[in-house]
Amino acid sequence: MEHIYIEGKSPYVFVLLHGTGGTEHDLLPLAKTLNPDFSILSVRGEIQENGMNRFFKRHGEGKYDLQDLEKRGESLFQFIREQSLKHDFKMENVVFVGFSNGSNIAVNMLLKEEAEFKRAVLFAPMYPVDITENTKDMSELNVFLSLGNNDPMVPEAESERVIRLFKERHAKVSTTFVEGHRLTKEAVLKAREWLNK
């Protein structure tokens, strides 16, 4: 997978996951703002949709290709595990930082993969997938969610669903709301304060 790895002073590692049409360079400034000491593993999505990079296929806005989501989620998780061995960091020290499509693949990995992730910072997530049979215990997970009021891509009910799916599995959830489908400076500063408490 196309990626960037930057060694930091801290044992923690940001795994950066861009939004649709982004690259592995997009969220580097965000990571530096959140905590300049963390190492960085920033990954480029392998799927192309009308020339735009994504992490998994979809059939339309909010209509995920569930088979591809499963496959790509597993593949990305294995890649992160390989990088953890290569660069000698612990999977439990991974902190997912995602925007939009990147947040969505992060939610999938948090739900599906057997790893005790402790923290995630997710901007504009959506996960319109039936997970009633998923009973994963997320009591070790602290997650910061930046959600959009009047978001043209994520209906309010879908934002509520994301909050619910974490809370129902006993994750500790912090939320902030911004206007629209955006990654705002205000939300980033709140995420930084939350992360470094």
TrEMBL record:
<dbReference type="GO" id="GO:0016787">
    <property type="term" value="F:hydrolase activity"/>
</dbReference>
<keyword id="KW-0378">Hydrolase</keyword>
<feature type="domain" description="Phospholipase/carboxylesterase/thioesterase">
    <location>
        <begin position="13"/>
        <end position="197"/>
    </location>
</feature>
<protein>
    <submittedName>
        <fullName>Alpha/beta hydrolase</fullName>
    </submittedName>
</protein>
<dbReference type="InterPro" id="IPR029058">
    <property type="entry name" value="AB_hydrolase_fold"/>
</dbReference>
<dbReference type="InterPro" id="IPR003140">
    <property type="entry name" value="PLipase/COase/thioEstase"/>
</dbReference>
<dbReference type="Pfam" id="PF02230">
    <property type="entry name" value="Abhydrolase_2"/>
</dbReference>
